[in-house]
């Protein structure tokens, strides 16, 4: 086993502390990564606090991982020592089912393996997976992404989750010229959705629950901004959008937002509150509307997204922090006070 430094919580209400964890030895198809940066996703917080499910502690979050290849196994062909690489939310899948073969490893029939709080049943003797708030990680080469030349490593980190989670539904529902796309909630995911939808050529509206982000939204490429706490502003955009990407981390009245769709429009939930959402079918019937969901994206599409961001100069707005600031950063994320993604400098672990 390889020893790695990490920051972990030991229970759902505990603060972060330094611990040492074990990574598996580098197998023939494995890559050992010296982690340089790790983004903080709201999913890290939901998971650390046990809001989605019970997890095993100590728990090391982090699935927006960027680093340098330090060692490769004897059969590795896709990466070499010194390469700039990334790891997102997944570290393995069966690789054989129809979904894996079509590039949708996240829908693996036999179960994909999460970057943290998961057991890798495809690698014998593998310890519980732990995330990127850590000095090193060992990952099978097929789940390691190339960071394109010219892209800053710290800015690449949030793309591995916030980037792909918004890119994938925007592509699936064909955001582009002539399409009116609304982004509901402008935090880590939301601000990436705005930048990506703008780069794809869509007309973009931000739906945010205060006025605080009005100027930033315009800067990120939004054409319009609606403060959803103002009834009049909301009424003005009824039946307006082809696609709404909901990135909000808490429960909301879905029916209000279904009312903002044009006929045949789709509201896609990527936000993942722990409580069920309530949909009135009459919000869907009139106008043949769709209410859908989307979860991260496959490995091939994640690489496509990284290359798209490099080509179109799309980068997140980040605030770099030290490992000692993780607890404060969590509070700020929960209070919608993140501008717009915290990225841990892992040199400070
Ligand atoms: P985030 O940075 O905290 O952004 C969430 C945004 O939701 C906030 O910036 C805020 O936007 C809005 N919001 C938060 N609290 C609110 C409240 N009380 N009332 C109204 N609006 C509120 O979180 P994130 O990292 O982008 O993640 C967002 C959600 O997506 C989380 O639930 C996360 O777990 C989930 N997620 C899902 C996937 C997936 O694959 N589906 C992947 C990653 C994350 P405004 O200030 O603009 O209103
Ligand atoms: Zn995430």
Helical content, roughly? 10-25%
Q: Mind telling me the CATH superfamily name of the largest domain?
A: Medium-chain alcohol dehydrogenases, catalytic domain
Give the count of structural domains: 2
> Globular, elongated, flat, extended or rod-shaped: what is the shape?
globular
**CATH fold node name of the largest domain:** Quinone Oxidoreductase, Chain A, domain 1
The CATH class assignment of the largest domain is Alpha Beta
Strand content: 25-35%
Mean pLDDT: 97
Summing up helix and strand content along with how strands pair, one would put the structural category as: alpha/beta
CATH architecture of the largest domain: Alpha-Beta Complex
The parts where pLDDT drops under 50 for at least 5 residues are none
Query: What small ligands are held by the chains?
Result: NADP nicotinamide-adenine-dinucleotide phosphate, zinc ion
Whole-angstrom Rg: 20 Å
Distance between the termini: 20 Å
How would you spell out the order of helices and strands?
EEEHEEEHEEEHHEHEHEHEHEHEHEHE
């Amino acid at each position: 086993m390889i020893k790695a430094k990490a920051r972990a919580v030991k229970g759902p209400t505990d603060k972060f502390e330094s611990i040492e964890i074990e990574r598996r030895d580098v197998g023939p198809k494995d890559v050992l990564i010296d982690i340089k940066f790790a983004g903080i996703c709201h999913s890290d917080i939901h998971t650390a606090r046990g809001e989605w499910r019970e997890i095993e502690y100590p728990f090391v979050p982090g699935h927006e991982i960027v680093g340098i290849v330090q060692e490769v196994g004897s059969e590795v062909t896709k990466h070499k020592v010194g390469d700039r690489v990334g790891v997102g939310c997944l570290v393995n899948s069966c690789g054989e089912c129809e979904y894996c073969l079509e590039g949708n490893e996240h829908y693996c029939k036999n179960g994909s393996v999460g970057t943290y709080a998961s057991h890798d049943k495809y690698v014998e003797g593998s310890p519980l997976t732990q995330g990127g708030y850590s000095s090193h990680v060992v990952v099978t080469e097929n789940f390691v992404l190339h960071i394109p030349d010219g892209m800053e490593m710290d800015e690449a980190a949030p793309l591995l989750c916030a980037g792909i989670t918004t890119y994938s539904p925007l592509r699936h529902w064909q955001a582009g010229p002539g399409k009116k796309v609304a982004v509901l909630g402008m935090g880590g995911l939301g601000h990436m959705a705005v930048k990506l939808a703008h780069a794809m050529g869509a007309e973009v509206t931000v739906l945010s629950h205060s006025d605080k982000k009005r100027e930033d939204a315009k800067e990120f490429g939004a054409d319009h901004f609606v403060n959803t706490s103002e009834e009049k502003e909301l009424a003005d955009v009824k039946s307006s959008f082809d696609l709404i990407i909901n990135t909000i981390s808490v429960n909301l009245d879905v029916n209000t937002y279904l009312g903002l769709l044009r006929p045949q429009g789709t509201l896609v939930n990527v936000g993942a509150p722990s409580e069920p959402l309530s949909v009135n079918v009459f919000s869907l019937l009139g106008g043949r509307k769709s209410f859908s969901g989307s979860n991260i994206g496959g490995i091939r599409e994640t690489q496509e997204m990284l290359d798209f961001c490099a080509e179109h100069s799309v980068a997140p707005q980040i605030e770099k922090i030290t490992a000692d600031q993780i607890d404060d950063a969590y509070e700020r994320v929960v209070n919608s006070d993140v501008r717009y993604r915290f990225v841990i400098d892992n040199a400070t672990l």
